[in-house]
């Protein structure tokens, strides 16, 4: 199946928590027949059932490439996944599984770029309802786009490296080249 013009939704629980077939099956059941095209990255889990006509199921996907085109992302709320989605202005439906994902998800919702689900007690239809809200509520896309703009203006990895080197020079008194040499980096 090829991608078409329908709103594109990515569903992934990441590399560590991706193998949760019960959650992925539930997503598939609730999103089947919707007005969107859904890509499932199963983390290697292949037994989530037959894919409905609007769904594509793969063990892994090129997440960044898909997020460049996505309208929404159903995710576990890991830092990498959230950062990548927000970098491309993609609003999120967050289903945190453990650790820092609860905080990251809560902050994403606080900023207006997504909705958080409590998967330990969510009701039938919650995934579809949250996805519909994120896709139709203009505020989610606008908040995600605002965050994307701020991330773009921050300067990316090159600026981060420059800031680290500037800090190291202030602390050590060494030049950028001396710090790079001390760290074993190409300066």
Alpha-carbon distance between the two ends: 46 Å
Name given to the CATH architecture of the largest domain: 3-Layer(aba) Sandwich
| Helix fraction by DSSP (H/I, runs of at least 4) | 40-55%
Report the β-strand fraction as a percent range.
5-15%
Low-confidence stretches: none
Q: In the CATH hierarchy, what is the class of the largest domain?
A: Alpha Beta
Helix tally equals 9
Provide the number of structural domains. Answer: 2
**Rg (C-alpha, Å):** 19 Å
CATH topology of the largest domain: Rossmann fold
Coarse structural class = alpha/beta
Order of helices and strands: EHHEEHEHEHEHHHH
**Care to count the β-strands?**
6
Shape: elongated
Describe the structure in your own words:
Helices cover 48% and strands 13% of the residues. By secondary structure, the protein is α/β, with parallel strands linked by helices. The protein folds into two domains: 146 residues, Rossmann fold (3-Layer(aba) Sandwich); 33 residues. Strand 5, helix 5 and strand 6 form a beta-alpha-beta unit. The termini are far apart.
